[in-house]
Amino acid sequence: MKRIGILALLMLLLTGIGWGASVRLSQSPGRGKRTVEVGDMFYIYMEVQDIDARPEVPKSVPGAKVMYFERTGQSSSFSSVNGRTTQSFSYTYTITLRATKEGSFSYGPVTVGGVRSNKVSYHIGAQGAQGSPAPSGAVPGNSRAGADSDKPKFIGKGDGNLFLRASVSKSSAYEQEALVYTVKLYTTYDAIKFIGASAAPKFDGFVVEESKAISSQLNYETYNGKTYATAVIARYIIFPQMTGSLKVSGNTYTVAVDQREYYHDPFFGSMSYSTPLQLNVTPNDLSVNVKPLPVPKPADFSGGVGKFSITSSLKSSEFKTNQAAAIVYTVSGSGNLKYVQLPDLQSVYPPQIEIYTPTTKQNISAGSSNVSGNVTFDYTFMPLEEGNVIIPEVKLVYFNPETQKYETSVARGYTVNVGKGKSSARSQSRKTVRFNPELLRVNPDKLSVRHVPVIRSFPYWLCFILPVVILAVALIVYKRYVSMHADIAALNSRRADKLARRRLKRAHDALRKGDVENFYTELLKALWGYLGDKLKMPTSELMRDNIRQVLAEKGIPESVVEDLISLIDEAEFAKYSSAGGKEGIDAAYSHAIDTINSLEESFKTSKTSSHKNIVSNDK
User: Fold this and answer.
1) Model pTM?
2) CA geometry: angle at 72 spanning 56 and 32, to 5°?
3) Residue range 430-454, pLDDT digits in tens
4) How do strand 120-125 and strand 172-174 relate by DSSP bridges?
């Protein structure tokens, strides 16, 4: 009887929990929106109360595409009445959707833990429609909606919450002087999830060395009276190659951040949650005034601009004639080390020593303020005569921007003792060669009376004609090659399809490895790169509105354009959303190939139609 009583009590408790369990669906068009249009993001909320079970991820929703599904909130409560304690808890799940079809639709009911929910209805209007009816079942003012818009926010050069500042160590410098170009990120957002550059900055007239001295963590800095978290995200050592005012154009960075949203909960009070936000930010452009090096330049100027020193190393002071030996000169310091040249040692060394072209080895690294290291010049030389021979000092003349003067560093010289060695090939060639008269004997019977001069033969003239023909053909081919490659933008436009397929091949490699993040990175590079090359547009102008306008002007069908924009949006959301995009990775790859093929066919059709119109107008 005791066991039966306990079992009955458990069944009563379970029944009581079942009475309080419920699943309720509600819909919201997102903050700041009253209607849902095709292409917009909207949300369906699923509130599960007193059910210890997780709902299944919805595979499809009428009129929309499921972007991601996640739990966005939870609450619990306790009450005690007359010594009886009860507990209630609830979870909120958010289905993030993109509207794909115009019309009125409904979703549900769904079943969670055996409990059936209500059905929610919603209306999707045409894209750009005004005054569409309010969606049924919407929750006005629901602050748990996602971001203000499903599309990335392009904020140009930045706003008060996130921006980039570019700086250069000197605004006025000498030619070949090392300068430091730094890009620093300023942000007030809670977390930085991703920072990626679409291209490198444009350094017109500079030689560039990329430095790895960037920030590994955020620091705090006050700028214009406001505190920001900062980090150095790029640093380059640049060397101006010409004089005058040279411009450095900043590139566009894509930054994914967490934006904090606040709402009021009836039980817990003020609460917050994070929503993903993607920003495209560009640092400011800079200009550097480059001065020429002082004149007159020393005759033995090495081309080095910076601060250097030179040393020499000789392993022995005893040598033999006609035997090779080595002497090493090492140039150390900071500056344009790669462009430092030693004097012509053939003119510096005595004639008793023959010296050959050196083997050069560079050990250089780009730090936070300069390029430093050393360059070794390994010379092979050969003594030709016996006796004491002096290897002279070697001078390195360079320009020091700090003192604004030409300075000289000297490598020590040596006095060496050269003994007798083996005879060289040169000495053997001095031996007397005896003449053998037998070599001049000619058989008179074999001489022909009918001698035809070589100048009258065809092979003789062919030796002149053939090089001229080859030279003419080579000039024609070269001229055509130069004309085809003169316009790099036009060349890239013609090869846009091939370049995109190369990038898609890298995306396919990531697909086989199951690397979702790298797959979508390479997929987006392929799509944006194809558009930039095909439309001859710089990266800064690659925006959706610009792309729509240019493609429409070129006669590309609107369906193909919208398919392309949809693919880019899906790839970006799949990459930066917390749920990832692993389920649709195969379809995204096939979709990208089909989209590029459709664009290529549309370009060819548009080009053919334009050509026919021109011909008909000429007639």
Assistant:
1) 0.44
2) 115
3) 444 455 556 656 666 665 556 667 7
4) unpaired
